[in-house]
Amino acid sequence: MIGPNDKLRAIVLTALMVTSIFGGTITFAGTASAQNNFAGNTAPTTVYLGDEDVNLSEVPGLTTSFIGVAGEADGGLASVNNLESADVTTSNGFEQGGYSNQSDGQLLVSVQEPEISDVTLEIPNGADVTNSTVTNDQDTLNVTAEWNFAQYENVTITVEDEDGFEIQDQLGTDLELETSDDVATLTGLTDLDSGEYTLTVEGEDDLDGTTRSVTFTITDQENTLTLGQTTATQGDSVVATATGNPGETVHIRIERSALLDSYSDPNDVFPQTGDVENPPGVTNATDDEGTEWVAAALALGDDGEASARIQTTHLDTDTIDVELAPGTDINTTAEDSTELSVEEQSINITSAPDVVRVSEDFTVEGTAIESDEVAAYARIDDDWERLEGDENPVDIDTDGRFVLELTASSPLHIPNSYRLAIVNEEALNSNDQFPETLTDNEFGDLETEAAFDVRSVEGDLTAQLSSQQIAANVGDGVTVSGTALGQGNNIRIYKVGPRGNVQFVSADVDDEEFSEEFDGIDDRGTHTFIVVGEGRDGTYAAENADNANVGGEITGDEVPQQAVAIIKEAYTGAGVDDQVIELTLQAENPQLSVEDFTTDGQVAQGEVTVSGTSNREDETVVFIEVLDANDNVVTSTDTEVNGTANEWSASLDLSDVETGTYTLRATDDETSATVEFELVNVLNTPSETPVTETPTETPEPSTPTETAEPSTPTETPEPSTPTQTTSTSMPGFGSVVALVALFGAALLAYRRG
């Protein structure tokens, strides 16, 4: 039987159902007005992931169950409650890909990701200002977009300023696009402040999570002109950049009065390069007031910029005005101008030494815009002499730079202060060559030159051997090295052996240093090395002596002293400034020694340093072993010979070696040396034994009576404490028993209860 409460419940339920149906109808109607939900009546049809209430009822073959047959959907299952109002969402199992009504069936539905592929902003003249600038005299901005879900949803437009506030309501009501051919026009841009704005296009309804954003920047409307450089040498090229409203045409111009008489063609001032618009291109023009101009028209691109090149070859050496005006009419008023200072053609020194060593190579760097080549000269008395060098003269690089590679030999070989000058092709003679000498008058007639001072000083040569002693006939070698300041590119080295035989080597100088290794010193005795530098004149006195027979002076029958004298004589004498250094090396039988490292034959356990001497070459390996009485190796290490000091050194850890008698043996690949020692716990040093000399203090027997100070023993028999200990321990034990008893009683009472 249905009671009043049941009736009330029925009424409420009916009302809720009616309300939900009514509300659903309202919602559906609202949705229908905001989007087109009809998917068509052909298969396959395309829908977009996230779209809701899509009408799939007329697509042939579809059921409410979908089986993935392609893409990410392949093998997956999706379903909807009603084909007339299908939600293509991930919650219903949909993924990007193709679906059918059976696993091997025909593709019926293609589910794609919604995408806005492009957003374009244009001003009325057609210039694309997407992510670019708009001058503040532009009032309107046209917006177009491309998106793949136009069949189902429109897209809307929002605009945010730099503070993140939405301002699209200030820009008109046309803020929606229905198709990719549709254009939304924003108006009222002139009321906006200068700055960057972000425009976002997004889906209107279910696909509002699909967005794409671009920017536009509002700038001042005035056209501006800037130059890549404000000072130029006659012949330089200068880049001029104009900025203004994107898509417009402007022109830059220079008065004809600022040009040389040699000027004839406007292309010689404004070449047809960069953003020069052709036509009208570059022209000579005369304004209404009779002023003559040379001008170039520039097309400002979508970014509102355009560049042109100004050639200064035909510009007068003065400060000239370069103007920017709108359009191509020469009579329009200039909106901006800038000054360009044109200087005479010159040679500029950017890098040069103050001091050079005689015979040393050095470089001079600089710029010589519009010159073809340059050469370096030094003033000697009343003339200018061309310097020696690998690159003198030298061609000018395409960027106007040059590097002269010179040598401080003749005429700089006498240490002194000199005036050097760099000249260009004006100095060429009738044969189109730089002469060896320019008279003072010829030099004075040159219009372009650059001069500087340099001081030449004596060079220096040093040399040393890597070792003063060496083992003979074991393959060891020695290195001759040193510095060669102002000694040219190579050093000559002669080695005279104990039997008079001569060996010659030419050692290259690199960064003013040289190094040469002599291997296989076989003969025992004194080996003499003679190192020769070419001195300040940059040449060797014995030019043809770069061989073992010293240009034929050595026959092979000389004793060592005679061979050494002949070599030294070839590089000494009147007028000769070659530098000569003599070094000697002793070649001996291989030798190896061990320094005594014990204290009276004993060594304490722990870290021990052993060392010795050796006449072996640098880095020869020395093996160190510690042998017991049975010649068993208990520990070992190795080290290398320091050839410069003829020494070696190593550390041994004897901490874990048992005490006893041992032998230390040091060995290279040719000889060995040994030292016997006793390994002890602690060394018996004499400083420890005198402690036993204190018996004189022992006979103070007054202390024994004090030692027996048993005034306390009388207190010791106080055994009351032990009895107290036992008595205190009993109550503690009793309390434990009492606690156990109480616990048992409580348990019994519980059970009875």
TrEMBL record:
The keyword Transmembrane helix applies. One of its GO terms (cellular component) is S-layer. This is PGF-CTERM archaeal protein-sorting signal domain-containing protein. Residues 682-731 are annotated as: Disordered. The chain crosses the membrane at residues 730-750. It comes from Salinigranum rubrum. It comes from the Archaea. Residues 685-729 have a biased composition (Low complexity). The keyword Secreted applies.
